[in-house]
Amino acid sequence: MKAKIHVYLKPGVLDPQGAAVAGALHTMGYEEVTAARQGKLIELDLSGEDADAAKSRVDEMCQKLLANPVIESYSIEMA
Amino acid sequence: MKAKIHVYLKPGVLDPQGAAVAGALHTMGYEEVTAARQGKLIELDLSGEDADAAKSRVDEMCQKLLANPVIESYSIEMA
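^ inputs. structure came back:
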């Protein structure tokens, strides 16, 4: 079983990486880019068969290690 | 228009961030995690109406700036 976790900075939290990406794209002539945000993508391989139980364990992992719930939000996709 | 870009290290490329995540999860007792890989998630806001043209421009941005095609693969999702 695989879990894909998307971790984003919450709206309103300063995102210097995203700002740097947007600035660089502008400099390169991609004027259509109005904003950029950068997040993390974590893919876990999991043993076990029960997808619901696995998802709630992954949610726990996000709370404890993978995301900082103060400034980041996350979504989990099981596959 | 929004473009979501997922950037992954290609299979076989050493992923120390992913290995650190897997190691930390094991230490915390999440024994079901057999592997972890970490990538980047970039979200761009784009002006303009033509989704196909925008996607090919975003592909160009990935080749030139957002991904390193030697060691990274990427996928683009328009929304």
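Residues 2-78 of chain A form a domain with the Mth169; Chain: A , fold (CATH 3.30.1280.10). Chain A has one domain: 2-78.
thumbs up if we can close this ticket
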